[in-house]
Amino acid sequence: RKEVEQDPGPFNVPEGATVAFNCTYSNSASQSFFWYRQDCRKEPKLLMSVYSSGNEDGRFTAQLNRASQYISLLIRDSKLSDSATYLCVVNALIGGGFKTIFGAGTRLFVKA
Amino acid sequence: GAGVSQSPSNKVTEKGKDVELRCDPISGHTALYWYRQSLGQGLEFLIYFQGNSAPDKSGLPSDRFSAERTGGSVSTLTIQRTQQEDSAVYLCASSIRLAGTYNEQFFGPGTRLTVL
User: Fold this and answer.
1) Which residues on chain B are in Cβ contact (under 8 Å) with A3?
2) Which end of chain B is less congested by CB atoms within 10 angstroms, N or C?
3) CA distances from B14 to A13, A20, B83, B113, B115 (A)
4) What SS3 string covers chain A?
5) Could you list the mean pLDDT of each consecutive 10-residue stretch along chain B, which spans 116 residues?
6) What is the reported pLDDT for A53?
7) What number of C-beta contacts closer than 8 Å exist between A and B?
């Protein structure tokens, strides 16, 4: 089982749609959680951190369920510019040190 | 302000040659990471430097790979006797805080390595 698993997609949605991405992680000692966004042939950039209480930034809402070891990202009112790959990222305590583990990403295509 | 920079942006080499990839992190960032990303794949962790501590080399795929970070700043990733399967984009990132905290990693644009 992969340490961080995501549905690879692609998700093809029309503009204005609401889309949800899920991510599961296997290491219960994981400490911090993030969603990064990666545009085609570009480097990843932080979209938002994910806190236990859940957090929202404009059209984006992130949720964390530690009991189920599950993270989600909800995008409301999708824009064409939201088309990208969304990477679930976990910092986990492994072998006495923290490691940053990236999921393989979920591709999103928003169409007019 | 200046972000993470990497050089070269593209490198084409012949199988068996050695290559050096350079990363200049954001000034003041204590943590530096190297990843590689093959076409259409996720990021694969390679190595992590944290301040003056010994680096975490657990992600290096073979002893042909090595990295150093001089003076707590610039880092060089060296691949000896390159193989075709080493072809990938090599990404460097830095963060102001250490892994395990809510540390945003800032990525450089990457070096695209092609081994012929």
Assistant:
1) none
2) N
3) 43, 44, 8, 11, 5
4) CCCEEECCCCEEEECCCCEEEEEEECCCCEEEEEEEEECCCCCCEEEEEECCCCEEECCEEEEEECCCCEEEEEECCCCHHHCEEEEEEEEEEECCEEEEEECCCEEEEEEC
5) 92 98 94 92 90 86 94 93 97 83 89 97
6) 87
7) 55
Average pLDDT of chain A is 93
pLDDT of residue B100: 64
Per-residue pLDDT, B72:
77
Question: Which chain B residues have a beta carbon less than 8 Å from that of A87?
Answer: 42-43
Q: How far apart are CA B77 and CA B23, in angstroms?
A: 8
Residues whose CB is less than 8 angstroms from the CB of residue B54 and which lie 6 or more positions away in sequence, other chains included = none
Give the pLDDT confidence score for residue A37 in this predicted structure. Answer: 97
Structural tokens at position B9: 């942006």
The answer to whether the CB of A106 falls within 8 A of the CB of A85 is yes
Contacts A95 to B, Cβ<8 Å: 58
Q: CB-based contacts of B6: which residues, under 8 Å, 6+ apart?
A: B21, B22, B23, B24, B90, B91, B92, B108, B109, B110, B111
Distance CA A4, CA B79 (A): 27
Q: What is the pLDDT of residue B1?
A: 58
Task: Determine the pLDDT at residue B19.
Answer: 98
Judged on CB neighbours under 10 Å (0-12, 13-18, 19+), B64 is middle
